[in-house]
Every structure is written in C-alpha cells, then in structure tokens.
Amino acid sequence: MGVHPFVICWLIFAGPLWAAIGAGWLSRVYHRKGLERASARFVGGLGGGAFGPVFLVPVHFLTPDLRKWQWKAGTGAALVLELFLLFALLQPQNLCVTNANYVVNQILNGLSIGFIYALMGVGLTLIYSVQGIVNFAHGQFYMLGGYISYYFLNSVGDVNPLLGIPIAGLFTAILGGLFERLFLRPMHLGRVERPSEYAILMTFGFGFLLEYTTLGVVGPFPKMVTQPYVNLPRLEIFHFLILPNRWVAGCVGVVLFLALIYFLYRTWWGKALRAVSMNKMAASIAGINPLSMNTAAFSIGTLLVGMAGAALIPIFSWVPGVGAKASTRCYVVTVLGGLGSVPGALLGGLILGVVEALGAGCYPDPTKGAAYRDVFGLIVFALVLLLKPTGLFGRKV
Amino acid sequence: MKGRAVQLAVIMFVVLFLGLLPFALGGQPYYLEVMTSAFFYAVLTSSWSFLAGLAGQFSFGHMAFAGLGAYTSGLLCRYLGVSPLYGILAAIVVTTLFGFGVGILCLRLRGAYLALFTIALSEILRIIVLTEHQFTEGNRGLLLPPLYSGITHVGQYYVTLVLLLVILGLLWWLARSRFGIFLRAIREDEEAAAALGVNTVRYKVSVFVLTSVIAGLAGAIFYHLVGIVTPEIMQLLQMSLIIAFAVIGGLESPIAAAFGAILCRILLETLRGFTIFGVHIELGVWRYAVFGLLLVLTLRFAQNGLFYPIIDYLFMRPARREAVAKRKQEVEDVRG
Amino acid sequence: MRRLLNLALLVLLVSLAASAEETIKIGGIGPLSAPGTVVGGIAMKFAMELAVQDVNNWGGVLGKPLELVFADTEGLPERGAAMAERLITKDKVVAIVGEYHSSVGLAVAEVCHKYGIPVLFAETWADAITETGYMEVFRIAPASSMVSIAWADWMKAVGVKRVVLIYETTDYGIGRMETEKQLLAERGIEVVATFGVEIGSTDFTPILMRIKAMDPPPDVVSAASVTGETSYNLERQMVEMGIAPTPQTIGIANQVAIQPEFWESVPGGNYFVFNQVGLPPAKWNFITRHVARAYYEHFHTKPPSYVLESYDAVWIMADAIERAGTTDPKALIEALERTDIVLSQGRYWFEYGSHNPLPEDVPKFMWHQWPNPATLIIQYFEPNQSWEEAAVLWPPSYQTHGVLYIVPGTKP
C-alpha cells in the first residue's frame, strides 16, 4: 500500500499540521495587533490546512480583515476541494469518484432528509435564542410527535398522513408549554440555585421521563404508518433516483420553515420573540413579558419538532428510542448553523443531511459505511464545537 | 468534639455494615451480584458528581471512559494474553491520556456546549467499538478473564466495596482540600477565580483526568468481574442512569451521590416485580419511567438531592458551627 | 386499626399457606425489557406458561405440579448470568429453558455448567452455544450454521452466482453473515459485498444506492440477517428503490416476513423469499395446532418458531424428569440425552452426546443438538398471502409447488 506522493506532499506543506499551526499563529498575530481573534483562528486553521505557509506568511504581514465572509468561504471551499481531490487520488476505484450519478443521488437523498433535520433543529435554536438553554429533551418531543400522528391516523382511518402533522404539533406544543411553565419558569424567576446546571439536568431528566413513559405506554413493538403521502414509490428522472415520499416530507419541512420565518418577521409575537432574544432587559422595558416569551418560544420549538416527527412517521418505523438519535441530530444542526440562528439551522440541516449521505456513501469500506453514518455528522459537530463554537451564523436571530 | 465523634461513629457503622453484609445475606450469589453492581454504579456516580456537581463540568462522557477502560483491558488480555492486572494498568494509562486530551479540548467549552461535545465523543466511541466488530466483537460481547482465578461472589463483592471506599475517601478528602475549594470557585465564577490567581486550566484538566481515570478503573475492574462487555454500556441510557442517581442522591457531595446510586440500584432491582399482599406487580420497563419522574421531582423540589440533608447535618453542620464559633471567638478577642 | 392488622395478618398467612404446596420448579429465561428484544421474550414466556399449564392438566410431573419461574434477562449477558444464578440458587429450579439472545445464552450456559443444572435452549442460534460441549447444555433451536447451510444449498440449486449480504451488527447478524460467506464460497458462489447496519437503523438509502449502482445487478440481495422492524424498514426501501425482488434480483427477507404485518410494513413485498424454522402447516400435528390456536387467541398472529420451541422445551424437560424419576441434575441430564418424544415440531432426539460421541467429521455444534429442525425456504407469490399458502421452495422433501424459485411477475 504505497502512499501516493501527492498525499505526502500535502501533509508536509499543508494539511492538519499547518492547520493547527495556522490557527495558533494567526490568532496570536491578530491578537497582538489588537484585531479580532476568533475569525483569525478559524481562517488561519482553514487556510493553513489548504495552503500551508504559502497562505499564512502573506496574511501575517498584510493582516487583512478576516471577518469578511469571503475569507471564510474561500478557504473553506479550497480545503473541501483539496480533500476531495486527495480522496479521489487515494481511492480511484471508489464509487463516489467514478460514478457521478451515484454522488448526485446521494446528495439528493441527503437534501430531502436535510430539510427535516433543519426543521428539527430550528426549534432547538429558537428555544436557545430566547431562553438561553439547550433543550435536551428535544428529540423526545420529535418521538412523541410521530406517535401522536400514528395513533391519530390509526383511529381516523384512510386519510393522507399530512393530516397527522398539525395534530401532533398541537399536542407537543401544549406539552412543551406546560413543561416550561411548571419546571423551567422557577429557574427564570431566580428560585433555583445554579440555574445553568438546573436547565441541563431538568431538560435531560424530562427527556428521560418522556422516553420511558412512552416506552411503557406504547410498548417496544415498532409502529409504522403504512399510508404513503403519494402512491408513487420512486421516480427516475434522467437516471436520478427520487423518492417522492421523502421529498413530500422535505417539502413539509420547507413550508413550515417559511411559515416560521413569516411568523418571526411579520407578526407581533414573532417580533417580540426576536426582541427578547436580542436583549431581554430592553424588551421587558418595551413592555414585553420575557416569561411569557419563554413559554411561547418553548412551545413553538416543540411544535416544530413534533411536526417533524409526524412528517417522518410514514417513512420510517418508530420506536421510543428514535428520540435519543433525533436529539443528537438536533444538536448537530443547531451548533453547525449557530445556536440562535434560524437561517443557520436550515443550512445546518442541509449540510448534515448531505454529510451523512456522502459519508455513508463514500466511506472506503462499504460494509461499514452505513453503520458509521451517524459518526460523520458527529465528527463535524465535534470539530465545529472546537474550532468555531458559534457555528456558521452564530449571531442571535 | 461531639460532632467529630458522631461523624466517626457513623462512618464506622456504615463501613462495618457493608463489610459484614455478605454474611447477613447468607452468601447468596444473587444479592451479592446486585450489591456488587450497586457499588460499581456508586463509584461512577460519585466520581461524576465530583466532576459535575463540585467542578461544574457537565461531561456526559463518563460511561464512555468506563467502557474505554473495560475495552482496553479486555482487548489487551485477549490479543496479548496478559494478565488482568496489566490490563487494568493499561486501562489506567489509556484513560489518563484520553482524559487529558478531552480535558484540554474542553477547556473553552462551558455548560451545555461541554455536555454536547462529550455526548458526541461518547457516541463516536460507541459506534466505532460497535462497528469494528472484527476487532472488538461488537455486540457479540468481548470476553474478559476473571480478575484472579477462583474468584467467588463474595470476593467480587469485597473488591468493589474496597474500590468504592477508597474512591469515596479520596474524593471526600479532595473535596475538603484546597483542590475542592478551587474547583468550587471555578464552578461559581471562572473569570473571578482566574482573576484571583487560581490556575483554572490546571484544575479543570486535573479534575477531568482524575474522574476519567476513576471511571476507567471502575469499568475495567467491574467488567473483569462480569466477564463480558458490549458497547451497550456506552449508550446514553447508562449515562442517564448515572445522572439520575447523582441528582437523586445529591450532586454536591460524592458520598450522597454514592448512597443515591446504591439505593437506586437496589430499588431498580427490587421494583422489577414485587408482591404486596399476595398481589404480584410486574413493573418491567415502568421502573425507568418511575425513576425519570423521581429525577424530575427531586431536581425541582430538592435540588441538592435526597441524601444531601443527612450528609449536611452530620458533616457540614458541625463544621459550620465550628467556623461560626471560631469567628465569634475572634471577634470577642478583638473586643477584648 | 386492630381490624386492619388482623386482616393484614390473615392475608399474610393465606399467601404463605398458598406457597407451601410443593412444586417442581423450572426456570424460564428471556428478554422482557430493553435492550433485549421484548417481543421475543413475551412470546416465549407465553408459550412456556401454556406448556406448564398443559403439563399440570395432564397430572404434573412425578405427582407434583410444575411451576415456571420466569426471569427477565434484558438481553444483557451480565443480567442473564445474574438471573440464572438467582433461579438456581434462590428459586431452586431443577432446569432452565428458553432465551432469545445468543450472547445471553452463552453467559447462562457458563452459569449452568458451573452448577451442573441442565439448560435447554429454545431459540439461541449461535453455534458457539452447543460447541461448548458442556453436559448441561442442550438445544432444540437450529444452530445458525444449519440455517445457513439450507440457504447455501438452495442458492446453489437455483444457480445463483453473485450475492449481496446485509446484516445487523449484533451477535446474531455477524455470526450468520460470516457463516454464510464461508458456506457460499465453498459452493462457488461469490459474495460481492456485505453491509453492516446497526440494529434500530431506519434509513438504508446509502447502502441501497450502492447496490443500485452495481452493474450488473447482483443475483441475490439478502436481508435475512437483519431482524425485527429494522428488516421491515430495509425490505420496504429495497422495494421502493426497485432493487429487489425484481426479475433480475432475488430478494431475501428476514424470517419475520412470516407475520401478516409484513404486508402492512412492506407494501409491495410480494415475491420475497424468507426462511422459516418449523413445520409447514400441512405437516402440523394436533399439538402444533393447539399451541397455534392459543397463541393466536392471545396475540392475533401466527406463532413464530421460537414459540413452538419454547412450548416443546418445557414438555421435553417434564418428560425427562418423569423418565429420570428424580430431579437430581445428573440423572436428569442422562434422561435428557435419551429423549425421544413427538411434540409440536415433530420428533425430538439428541443425536450426539455422551451416549453417542461426536465423530471427527461432524461439526462441533451438533453436540446435544436436535438434528432435525425443519428449515424451510418459502416465497410469497400473491400480495397479502398468508404463509400457509405461500410456496415452500426448499428442502425438496417439503416443496409444495414443484419449483425452486418463482420469478417475480410469474405464477408457479
């Protein structure tokens, strides 16, 4: 197994070594010159990894404004391209390199699921932006949404599963609101010692309670909604495989996303929520009750994620355990996009969907690729947390 | 003085009770197994409460370190044929290194971010162990040789009991020492502590390494006793149990957390199916739902845990009284 | 207050008295909670309780009633070992039957071997269990290899050349995949690819896209080593993406395809091939029908093989105790070895044991193994078909429609 000379070149003149050096070096240089440090670290890491000292030396002397998005996007894109070329060199027989059709199919599939991930994540990000806490029970609300839709569809009979979505959302919204009011409001009122610890443990504990109560009630037998959205299992357009049912779910995600944006920017409540997320003190001076906004945000967050669950239950079978997996995906989406940013959640969801699809599809060992599917998203997640915890758009909504 | 005597008496009583329990139970393997597993969870819970409650670092990767220790030892014993003792030593070394690495990575992460990061790491490790089944046996389970040949259930009980007592002693001593004070300072306000000259980096990394090693050691020892380990132990469920035990017992004090763990573990076992007035109730999976409810209610209404008041009364109140008395004395001395 | 105390005392005394009657206790083990497969455990427990009831209706064993003590092993080996310990030392059972998960079964086998108590496995398929060669271990479920041999022989007979195997990364899945790979290679069939999936996964599009990109398409795509709802998801997506069953590719489903809910969960699942351990309905005797009827009344679905095996396991134990004339473990084991009885799955005997030592050329897993479980290969050829009407393709002695394989779109 001779290592390709290009790879060795890359590892010496660029690559992870220079990424680490670049991050530290530029961060220090910019700090000493009194300029912003975080972007310097980020761009230094990406640029060093892509171009090595060729990039770092001129930037050291010229110190351009690295906060501009062009720098981040440019170095990021260059690095991604380089990694792909390296991959192609090392794995010439890999399907992802030889079969463009295959790659496109994987990306399309990733995007269709990505919209749902975005919907799941945007609820979490909204809750964070208004309340400042991460809802560790988010995935369990997703799980509940699916089950409510299932039971509703089963009792009503032969209707399109789309009808289950608002019903599920209503239920999870009410449950979320109640939980927030009863268990989280004391924290905001200052009646709790060590509030940040309390928030983590309380949401986590509630998620645990929800999961096991649901397990007790519905049992371990998996449930599946068998009516499809459309009676068309697959479409082949120009050799590209489209699974219409998944795309319907994806479209539901898009529609709800757009509805959310309309809500946030065009209605009074939405603007009030954004106000609270920007500056709680100022908002309360302006007459907005932050406590009600907290409850509202939590309700809306759980509404969205419950609907996401209801949207997916005709496609995948459901067990109470899906909540935990969904939670992890939500975290990835929101951190990728930036905790507190709605457009970030959309981008984060799509990126996660594509990363998972390409990772599982292109992993050199095909037997393990699918099993490692979750890992790819998690690795990106861990890297983002380390290098740029504020994510892509890390400003509040 | 009286407080001190009471403290010592209580400690001695508890230790004696636990030490003689096997004989009271008549050497019944089933009960001994439950207690052994309870002690294991107690070690993990108390070390986690030290990390999360005392130092404020909410790492969700604790079970991952336990699993790391168990798998390191198991894989070494299997592929290199060494005795479990070397396996456990290797587990300590590996968890130290990983704990150090993770601690350094986590330096800049606070609160929920730290929790999320450690969840991610834990899941990544679990999936890798699960998928590389040619190497780790994945879900088939990796067999580990017994700690020493001819070990009995009573032996297992005492091994874990001694481990628990040693770890509790260590954690309690650390909590009362400068180390503990600095950790609490860092937890309350990291910037202020740093401003006052506390080397936050050193302490944060140290506590991470310490608790990771404890978890790894406990994991290695326990799974040598059980004989087989699967990646299931690194699932988030197991971590949730530890968290639940810690909260119910008392997050501030490792000893309260350990008691919480032992009691909850026994409760989980007995709640499986019990008979009241000839009516047999099988709770099955509802046990966990009950625990979830207990966790949520305890956190809401008794945030310091259910055992904490006892510990507080026995150990902390005398100290507080002492401090107050000393202060009064000083004031009187000054007044003259 | 005094009256309440009296009442409590009375209840206590009555319950004590009720438990005073002597019974012969048999231990039952299986998963009743996660992470074990609860469906399996519940079904097995039901079958065992039914068998105990029937045994007692027939007069019990050695003049005493039989009592089942069931323990939840949760699908975790350490729990299984602990439960086995409890059953043997605390509940004083004379034998143990059951278990669904092989990894748990291995742990339990060790415990039973330590105490010398016989254990009869009713579902754990891993070869390793009987390969231990312990005197205490018996099995009436097939060894995993036996099922894989049936598949390999069938594929050879059909003329398959290229196979894709999808398996779950559990002890069951990994074991089956490795055995199948080897057996197929011995028969000159190429395993083009194997894909591992985590149990509980729901989205298989990455794998299926890879298979779709294969040119030419494989002859067989097998999901047989993926269990439960995971397999339903997989099979559904196989159909949705047009991978199998198609005229070019044979689709193999997991044995849960036998359940009527298969048709709900896998719309368009016609022409899937799957295996079933157990006699086809045409060969059912009155015992099989009795168990199936009771199971249907309770669960509204047909009994899977492990239900019938669990039922039979209790009877085999009862019969052995009766023949031994005592509950002494050594005598019981000896009596078990000489078992020859006809129950719901046909005639049971243990070919190899201390009464008939294993020859060199016979695989080790045949020790204390029932050699004759029917491993059928079945295929649906009409939508919503019940498995009794489906075509049995293999073994030739059970073949119903005179064909080895029905090409999708045709009728036998």
Outline of the structure:
Chain A folds into two domains: 5-90, no CATH class; 95-387, ABC transporter involved in vitamin B12 uptake, BtuC (Orthogonal Bundle). Helices cover 75% and strands 2% of the residues of chain A.
Topology:
The complex is a heterotrimer of chains A (397), B (336) and C (412).
Chain A (H helix, E strand, L loop, with lengths): L4 H9 L1 H18 L5 H14 L1 H10 L6 H22 L4 H4 L1 H32 L6 H19 L7 H25 L6 H24 L16 E3 L2 E3 L1 H23 L1 H11 L1 H6 L4 H23 L9 H16 L4 H21 L3 H4 L3 H15 L10
Antiparallel strand pairs in A: 1-2
Helix pairs in contact in A: 1-2, 2-3, 2-4, 3-4, 3-5, 7-11, 7-14, 7-15, 7-16, 8-9, 8-10, 8-14, 8-15, 9-10, 9-14, 11-12, 11-14, 12-14, 15-16, 15-18, 16-18
Chain B lengths: L1 H23 L4 H26 L7 H18 L4 H22 L5 H21 L1 H4 L5 E2 L9 H24 L1 H11 L1 H6 L4 H27 L1 E2 L6 H14 L4 H17 L2 E4 L2 E4 L3 H16 L6 H28 L1
Antiparallel strand pairs in B: 1-2, 3-4
Helix pairs in contact in B: 1-7, 1-14, 2-7, 2-10, 2-11, 2-12, 3-4, 3-5, 3-10, 4-10, 7-10, 8-10, 11-12, 11-13
Chain C lengths: L1 H17 L5 E7 L7 H20 L8 E7 L4 H14 L4 E4 L3 H14 L3 E3 L5 H5 L5 E3 L4 H15 L3 E7 L2 H16 L3 E8 L7 H8 L7 E6 L2 H13 L9 E3 L8 H5 L7 E5 L8 H14 L5 H20 L4 H9 L3 E3 L2 E3 L26 E5 L11 E4 L18
Parallel strand pairs in C: 1-2, 1-3, 3-4, 4-5, 6-7, 6-8, 8-9
Antiparallel strand pairs in C: 10-13, 11-12, 13-14
Helix pairs in contact in C: 2-12, 3-4, 6-7, 12-13
